[in-house]
Amino acid sequence: MEIVFALAVGILAGSGIYLLLRPRTFQVIMGLSLLAYSVNLFIFAMGRLRMGAAPIIDPARGSDPALYADPVPQALVLTAIVISFATTALFLVVLLASRGLNGTDHVDGREPDQE
């Protein structure tokens, strides 16, 4: 499971970086979103990938940390998802305003010369 998870994080990060290097602003925004998702998955994986483990300590099972999932990365990822959603919405509004003012959606603000 760890290999599949690592491949997913790597593919998302690679795709995000590729889209960040594109000349159109919408592709840059999608690249930032993919990069944020890959970082979220990486943070989530730092809390140990355990299936069926409770994040809350059960007095009947004892307090051995190996029996439980770490709830802190889960809370961090949930917060990061909300923040990335808000920043993506803000970027899209700025994209629409920039396209309305400049008439283009290139990152540098002008179309390449057509020859």
TrEMBL record:
Q: Where in the cell is it found?
A: Cell membrane
Question: Which cellular components does GO assign to this protein?
Answer: plasma membrane
Q: Which gene encodes it?
A: phaC
Species per Swiss-Prot/TrEMBL record: Candidatus Nitrotoga fabula
Task: Report the family membership.
Answer: Belongs to the CPA3 antiporters (TC 2.A.63) subunit C family.
Q: Where are the transmembrane segments?
A: 6-21, 28-46, 75-97
What Gene3D superfamilies would the database entry show? Answer: 1.10.287.3510
Q: Which UniProt keywords apply?
A: Cell membrane, Membrane, Transmembrane, Transmembrane helix
Q: What is this protein called?
A: K(+)/H(+) antiporter subunit C
What membrane topology does the annotation report for this chain? Multi-pass membrane protein
Give a single Pfam family match. Answer: Oxidored_q2
InterPro entries assigned to the protein according to its UniProt record, in alphabetical order: CPA3_antiporter_subunitC, NUOK/Mnh_C1-like
Q: Which PANTHER family match?
A: ANTIPORTER SUBUNIT MNHC2-RELATED
